[in-house]
Amino acid sequence: MRWSQTLIPTLKETPAEAEIASHKLLLRAGLVRKLTGGLYTFLPLGLRALRKVEQIVREEMNRAGALELLMPALQPPDIWQQSGRYESAKDVLFKVRDRAKKEWVLGPTHEEVITTLVAGEINSYRQMPKNFYQIQTKFRDEIRPRFGLMRAKEFIMKDAYSFDATDEAAQVSYRKMYDAYARIFQRCGLKTIAVEADTGVMGGKFSHEFMVPAATGENEVAFCDACGYAANVEKATSAVQRSEVGGQRSEVEKFATPGVVTIEALSKAPYDVAAERQIKTLVYLAEGKPVLILLRGDHQLNEAKLTGALGTGNFRPAAAEEIFAALGAHPGSLGAVGITHLPVYADEVLRDAADMTTGANADGFHLRNVAIGRDIQAAHWADLRLVQAGEPCPKCGQPLKIQRAIEVGHVFKLGTKYSQALNALFLDEAGKQQPAIMGCYGIGVTRTLQAVIEQSHDDNGIIWPISVAPYTVCITPLNAAPESAVMQRAEQIYAELTARGVDVIIDDRSDRPGVKFKDSELVGFPIRVGIGEKSLAKGEVEIKPRAGALILVKAEETVAKVMELIQQG
Ligand code: ATP
Ligand code: MG
Fold first, then answer.
1. Average pLDDT over residues 488-498
2. In what order do the strands lie in the sheet with 356-359?
3. For position 204, what pLDDT does the model report?
């Protein structure tokens, strides 16, 4: 490709709309342009890189035995009603109407469509295992589209769906995808960690997310260097000790705490009740009804775990007046002592705790000497807390670390939720009808592309791994006059590399050398071949790997050296 003939609108200034490095670089390097929030056009260079990521994904899916197909993005709402997600996923569903005012759904994912297909096509255990995938545009009505391609309204996903006759076979399908994902991200030059993930309202059995560690990531991951335990904080646990049972069990005592409405205030003089000896009482409305949630004073609620405990994601913190209606007190003096008219969900760490202090459900008063079990009837016990850095690893006891990360892929063992709802049934060996056991596996292809940039750049621009670079080599003649010796040598190298199947771009613009060098660094081509008059007069050409030191080679050895660098990767 000739630079002058394509469209690479590089920008000197960082557009104000971009907050994170990769988003800035996508725009500055002329890879994408925003149409409007959450919607992007891929320019020629961006599209080339995207196609390379897609190709890696495709090759590894095929290698793992998955079958490529292509499903409609426009979907009838009745299959969404059948699966129950017309309601549960309503926040992200884009809906459109046709001329007859009939409603349609723009697919945010394809479990409903694939399961409907399989219901019609697969009816015997002999036809399984099967795994179908596609690389396709998804639509999600994200509340906060941001960070460019990271969270868009329209994006490209690779989604795969496995169907198995037995649990053991489903396990094998899951493992194959897990392994394929590890290879895909590695081939894209990405360092990822696979973490245990929350299964949320998808209703699955277990799942892993592939995370790219990055300070700008929207997820938090807890991990242990010592044993390799790693989990999304939504799911992570720790071996934090239960509160010790206090020595003597005195009667509950009400005491005045005028103006004290926080755990912190109560932990200071004159009260001096350490946060870990306090019970924090939260009031939530779940499916519209109040529930109490109890945590140790120094702990935070993990809403993903609460979803699991409540069996619904339809909840929110109650407003002050709703709390007053439920407990007769305002936040700051709430407690569960003697509460029998509301469901009480307590964090496991509080089990058997005694000598605790909590709100008295009377503004300006607290209760001390509270013993769970004796004074508080918690009908529901669950792990409800967010792990904190430094707590002991649940597997080996070493301190956990917490790091931010970008989720690029997700493998999920679904079970039979969708096959049951949408009648994907088959006859097993004994001739008995069973729902197929499903798994689903997603990779955000566009997000992965941006994650590569987020993980691999410097102050001058992107540092592409060869595998996904829009062009592997950029030839930069410092004199672009067609008859110049420099340009002729450049054309010769261009032709030779092209003939060897290398993706090459030649910067045939008549701009100053400084401009050309800056642009090629900004775009981040892995190898730059610089040809200048002075060095060429000495028979030399400069090869500059984007991430390495300048190499001087004899002009006639340029192609061989470039090929060697490409082979080294
Ligand atoms: P997130 O938690 O980031 O919203 P998700 O759990 O909703 O993601 P999945 O339904 O598992 O995502 O989708 C599979 C993959 O698609 C994700 O791992 C991610 O890489 C990508 N993805 C999801 N939502 C978006 C989006 N709005 N824009 C770009 N990529 C996305
Ligand atoms: Mg996910």
1. 97
2. 253-256, 365-370, 356-359
3. 54
Q: How confident is the model at residue 313 (pLDDT cuts 50, 70, 90)?
A: confident
72: CA distance to ligand 1 center in Å?
19
409 pLDDT more than 80: yes
Token pair, residue 468, equals 């996904």
Phi-psi region of 158 (alpha: psi -120 to 50; beta: other; left: phi over 0): beta
Confidence of residue 379 (pLDDT cuts 50, 70, 90): confident
The pLDDT of residue 242 is 73
Q: Is residue 235 part of a domain?
A: no
Q: If DSSP codes are grouped into helix, strand and coil, which group holds residue 35?
A: strand
Cα–Cα–Cα angle for 53, 55, 58, nearest 5°? 115
Asked whether the predicted pLDDT for residue 352 surpasses 90, the reply is no
Whether residues 258 and 351 fall in one domain: yes
Q: Which of 382, 401, 436 is the last residue of a domain?
A: 382
**CATH label of the domain that carries residue 428:** 3.30.930.10
Q: Are residues 526 and 490 in the same domain?
A: yes
- Domain that residue 54 falls in: 17-190+410-453
* Whether the predicted pLDDT of 243 surpasses 90: no
Answer yes or no: do 145 and 272 share one domain.
no
Which segments of 242-315 does DSSP mark as H helices, in order?
A: 263-266, 303-310
Give the total number of structural domains in the chain: 3
Q: Is residue 271, in this structure, part of any structural domain at all? A: yes
Residue 516 scores a pLDDT above 60: yes
Q: Are residues 182 and 139 in the same domain?
A: yes
Q: Are residues 58 and 124 in the same domain?
A: yes
233 φ/ψ angles, rounded to the nearest 5 degrees: -60, -20
Q: For residue 198, give the ligand nearest its CA.
A: 2
Residue 11: predicted pLDDT: 97
What integer best gives the mean pLDDT of the chain? 95
Asked if residue 168 and residue 261 are part of one domain, the reply reads no
Q: Is 559 helix (H, G, I), strand (E, B) or coil?
A: helix
In a domain, 558, yes or no: yes
Flag whether 305 is in a domain. yes
Q: Which residue has its alpha carbon closest to ligand 1 atom 27?
A: 151
Specify whether 257 is located in the same domain as 161.
no
Cα(140) to ligand 1 centroid in Å equals: 9
**Ligand 1 atom with least separation from CA of 443:** 15
CATH number at residue 523: 3.40.50.800
Helical pair 167-187 and 44-63, crossing angle rounded to 10 deg? 140
Largest CA distance in the chain: 99
Span from the CA of 444 to the centroid of ligand 1 (angstroms): 6
CA of 137 to the centre of ligand 1 (A): 12
pLDDT of residue 91: 92
Are residue 72 and residue 158 in the same domain, yes or no?
Answer: yes
Q: Is the pLDDT of residue 245 over 70?
A: no
Averaged pLDDT for residues 427-435? 97
CB-based neighbours (< 5 A) of ligand 2, an ion = 410
